[in-house]
Amino acid sequence: MPKLYKVILLNDDYTTFDFVIEILKTVFGKSEEDAINLTLKVDREGSAVVGLYPYEIALMKVDKVHKLARSAGYPLRARIEED
């Protein structure tokens, strides 16, 4: 089984809750309820693990988050950490 990596979303003071929820639903396939709960966790704790993936997929997810955020004018960031 391939090694898995955590994708972590990081809090910032500019990205809207609605945008983060949308990212969690579209990029990570979360339900509305899970997306809201994860968004609140990011807001309260500064970050949250939003998925566990093989390295290449984790990289693609982070890249997609950054591209979508930049094109919408938000500084939202995600990073990868070894599980």
UniProtKB/TrEMBL annotation:
GO biological process: proteolysis
Keyword tRNA processing: no
SUPFAM superfamilies: ClpS-like (SSF54736)
Function: Involved in the modulation of the specificity of the ClpAP-mediated ATP-dependent protein degradation.
HAMAP family assigned to the protein according to its UniProt record, in alphabetical order: ClpS
Subunit details: Binds to the N-terminal domain of the chaperone ClpA.
Name the UniProt record assigns to this protein: ATP-dependent Clp protease adapter protein ClpS
UniProt organism field: Caminibacter mediatlanticus TB-2
